[in-house]
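# step 3/5: fold
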Amino acid sequence: MISEEGVTRSVRPDIVELPSGPSLPRPGLLVVGVGGAGRHMAAQMPGERLTICQEGDTGIPGQRQVLLRKGELAVARTSSATALHVSDLPWKARLVDAIGRPDVMLLFSGMGGETGSCIAPLIAELAPFTTLTFASVCLPFSVEGPNRRSMAREGLTRLRGAAHLVAVYANDPLIRLAPNLPLAKAFKVMDQIMLALPIDLSECLTTEAIPMLKGELGRRELRAGIGYGMGLEKERLAVEEALTSPWFPSEEFQPDSALMIVSQGRPDIGGLEDCAREMAGRLPVRKLLVSSRTDPSLDRRVRVSLMLGYRF
């Protein structure tokens, strides 16, 4: 367990290390990408993958996929969640069979278009036997118009009711994050942030940790940040950068819980402790869940992947 030596009694949050270790059972994971944006994100994830796209789109080479016709998407868009749940539609049966019964489902989708806004929530609803459904979704730019924004809001509301954890990434902050970069390169920066925590989580998640994640982060809107550090103060630098994420709301909204995963080039419990103390001194949340993993590609750097839970 993490020692809290040196942390004053006034410091909050409570620091809780997630159960980890090679001897603990690991859950089976399924990565699902819905629509164009979801397919792009899922292709960069390790493990078993499934893509769900409109007929005519290209899936991930060598991976399973379900193609939906325009008429089937129209039914999904115009039917209520209750009607779809009780219906006996062949294409819905194809989705159920493709999803199966994974322990954990990591779901990626863009919201605002017909496929993502309608099918991503349906996928979460069709996986009642999944112990943890963690959805990561991006919202359209404001300039894309009120129709796409309205469809995104409707889809997100429905998704929150079906998935256990929902991480939200609006596209607008990309303009602040990388104002001088071409849009294609800015999206690569967004990819890095959107993928960091799901990849880190997939590498260190144990079956025992799942109830803790659901209890502390469930039924909240999750926002993410990522930070890197190197040198003598690498832990402090990584924490500071993670806390500057443009996806965090203004200071008038305060998170009530957080998850931090510390990735290091080599195993070092001291690095995890340093990051935890640094984060606890800066983050006004009730509880901070922490875990760590080894990523040899980092060499002497440290990466902090942070997820904050808000009750808006």
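# step 4/5: annotate
Residues 14-23+222-310 form a domain with the 60s Ribosomal Protein L30; Chain: A; fold (CATH 3.30.1330.20).
# step 5/5: archive (pending)
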